[in-house]
Fold:
Amino acid sequence: MAVPGTALRRLRDHLHQTRLLGSISSALYYDQNTVMPAAGAEWRGQQLALLAGELHERQSSAPYTELLVAAEAELDSEAPPELRRNLELLRLELGRQRCLDPALVSALAKAQSRGNAVWQDARARNDFGTFAPALAELISLRLEQASQLAAAEPVARSPWEILAQPFEPNVSKARLEELFAPLRAGLPALLQRVAPSSTPEGSGGDLAEALQERLCAELLDSWGYDPQRCQRSRSAHPFSCTVGPQDFRITTRVVPGQPLSAFLATAHEWGHSLYEQGLPRTDDHYFPWPLGEATSMGVHESQSLFWECRVARSRAFAERWHHRFCQGLGSDPWNGAFGFWRALNPLKPGLIRVEADELSYGLHIVLRFELELALLEQAMPVEELPHHWNRRMGELLGVRPASDAEGCLQDIHWAEGLFGYFPSYALGHLISAQLAEALERDLGGAGAIEDCVAQGEEERLQQWLARHVWPLGRQVDGEELVAQVCGSALSAAPFLAYLERKLGQLQG
Amino acid sequence: MAVPGTALRRLRDHLHQTRLLGSISSALYYDQNTVMPAAGAEWRGQQLALLAGELHERQSSAPYTELLVAAEAELDSEAPPELRRNLELLRLELGRQRCLDPALVSALAKAQSRGNAVWQDARARNDFGTFAPALAELISLRLEQASQLAAAEPVARSPWEILAQPFEPNVSKARLEELFAPLRAGLPALLQRVAPSSTPEGSGGDLAEALQERLCAELLDSWGYDPQRCQRSRSAHPFSCTVGPQDFRITTRVVPGQPLSAFLATAHEWGHSLYEQGLPRTDDHYFPWPLGEATSMGVHESQSLFWECRVARSRAFAERWHHRFCQGLGSDPWNGAFGFWRALNPLKPGLIRVEADELSYGLHIVLRFELELALLEQAMPVEELPHHWNRRMGELLGVRPASDAEGCLQDIHWAEGLFGYFPSYALGHLISAQLAEALERDLGGAGAIEDCVAQGEEERLQQWLARHVWPLGRQVDGEELVAQVCGSALSAAPFLAYLERKLGQLQG
Structure:
């Protein structure tokens, strides 16, 4: 420990314990979504609420406040900037935590857990009606939370913006409108260029579960998966989860009729996990300090999307992996590597966000962003959600859900009270595209990613990210990260240019 | 909540939270032993230590003491006896917790963790010498603990007896000598009747892992396994684990070369789980009060052994399941149902406790009980342990270990400082046999268990246990339970009579 001073040392120990508690919640979440029997949900909710209460207490108590004040007093003119930044981030977080009524924190934890359970059931039975009251309760509790948090915000923010801060620090509705406008304007035009005839052939078949499992394992092996530190399981919804500084989990699922789904989800979740694994943990100013944490969901998503879209959906990748798929299958339903590449990139507006192609994905997010604002800030009754969902789906993507299960019940986020989260997914696409441009400049110019993939040298991509992106932690927010690494402000242009190029090649 | 009074109500809430915390540890333990990657161990240790510290604090703090005092003051002459018993049990436990010097608690935790690590290594290298000092330190710390705890004991108890209380409430050395003497006298004679020629034939083969999995699943299905409340996983060592009032887990393992091991372990662990599932949780005086807990390890083990030995190793069961095994295998390596029954009951004195048959198991325990007493109360130097282990092994079981790894280093218990635990395993055999006699009296006389099994009516056995045994919780200790349910004091006679009968049939 190079951090000097008694209060600073005690503060570090306090943060270490806080990390322990938080990671216990992560372990319970992982268990809940992989093996926990359904009837365990109610008790699990109580366990998580207890931990949430303790975490809140640790992050807002008077003794902790005094500890932080004492640590701030130990800062002198020679204190390193990292330490300053850590204390600033802790001060901001403390201000937010102290605004919150503990009763609300506990009520929210319970409502989130109940929301998840009710949603599972409502989605299975395609019954929005049973979910609506749980959603309304979550919205009301989250609005109450935003109102309590407002006093701690360093600048004036709307309720939605306040709730979005934990996912995307410093995000604003105005900036998102600015970034999303080119998507709203440009994506439908790109989508229209996708004639029905251009949807890929030969992807209607299926792959045996065991073969999918084997290919996922091969992919992870070739991308540095270490079974001593990682674990892969099945869950209803793929996710990545860090349970300890040396304990990384990812989950996937096999989707009948979608032979490449588990494979691409594995690439995606592994991208999240690589970022977590690459966060700095040894430097004195990082773990367990704020600087050692992921900076935003947008940056997180940029890392998963990089490995899913820029690598696993690339043409070079399709050419390298095509024969492995055919070998396992004993036939080639794709009629060659180009067909396999097209199967990895089905361009077809669909109903389901997590199955969406790169052209439509952004519009799924625009839809959710609009509806979240309507629910939270424009007093739209939850009962109207299915109607407006289906209407805007038609307008933006030209498709209409036949049921709420494949409509507004498809995502878990709102069922867990996560509002303000969805835009990060779209930001992830933009950040990934802009980082990819910077990476290619460094590694030999346009096409450098495809070249690395063609040579089986994905570790060079990992090395670049490990040098430029992962170690930053919370030194910078998402926009600052892009400016620092790429030398230009975040914009939708690199993403749209990339899509234009890829579409041309896929249709060529 | 029918429990009257304010302090009583607050006490109940306190116990509920304590249960939540304890069950979080259970969930982490389950995760650790089923999916956690190896590198996660160090952090997991820190998580569990944090929870253990919180649990100890909740069970020994001054505010908790005041709460218990206030609750006791609310008892009036009309208080129900269950409430009285709950407060007595809490008072006894609090007295024990408060006797302990925190420095000793911490020293013990470290010594246990070190003991485990040194033991793993010593066993792997078959080097008792490196383990001996760690064992000596554990003995010395546990004796110090017993001496601190002595003041809290309601009656005078020897150090070994004090350490055995958490596993077997009210156990005494004299009573165990009384119960074990017939085993020491009777089992060797039974073992001598097992001629080498009588070891079963045809069990040397193996069953494919997938077939073992399927048969285990079929077994659980037929015994009421409810996937809504239960989960089955794999682990290095089989165990049963309750994660919440509606969340029950069991694990098994497939052992190469032992085709029936996973199947019998499934029966065993399911027996533990049935007891946990049957503990009373709805009555006001039970969950989360002490009365709602399992009463002793001996009673717990009696339930697992009932389903493993009395049911799954019974002749009627072999006759019902033989064709399923043959069907899955496509052949009959057992030459008929009788051969299959003998394969389920291999009678052969061996060196390893966890692989022992019903005839030798008790002698493995007698050996350990004698040596624990010698180490803790008769000043036997730890260096002499291997010598006495091997000598008594020869005298009791007629076999001598070729190495300490398969001798006195085989069990984990002493390496973690667990003295006083082993006798519960033997008590489980005795209790199971005596309960089985009572059950048969109620269900139609001798042979009633075999009759139920032959008809596929194991649920009648479950119903009897669910009425007479499981709901008692901690109303009674192990001996009281037997006296109440069977109408006679616990003795070794039913167990020895059962073995005599079974041996005759197996050799017939």
